[in-house]
Amino acid sequence: MGNLFYGNTDQAIVIPDRVLAHIKVVVATKLRRNESFTLSWRHVEAGDPGRSTLWLDPSIPLRFVFDGAEPEVLDPEILKTLSHAASSSAGMTIDFALFDGQRATAPALQSV
Questions:
Q1: How many whole angstroms separate alpha carbon 36 and alpha carbon 51?
Q2: What is the count of structural domains for the chain?
Q3: Residue 10: which domain range?
Q4: pTM higher than 0.85, yes or no?
Q5: Which pLDDT belongs to residue 46?
Q6: What are phi and psi for residue 105, nearest 5 degrees?
């Protein structure tokens, strides 16, 4: 499980490495172009039926930390789907069903 650190906090958003790798590529591309957008996901943890959204902007600190030393194999179709969503007015929403073969769990907040 990887960690996404957003803003000036030590609280990590825990995301499977495979999912985080795809998110990282799309986010880096958008932010490199100075394009802000939202990143959303549904909570799947017991007792937490809500959803979360982050406003991603080049001025906000962002750090990706992966558990695995080797880079994940990226799926071009998933990258295309996420990129199109990030460019829409709705923003990028992570659909964990896209990551079949590794039933990805939704991000969870964790203090590190």
A1: 20
A2: 1
A3: 2-111
A4: no
A5: 58
A6: -95, 155
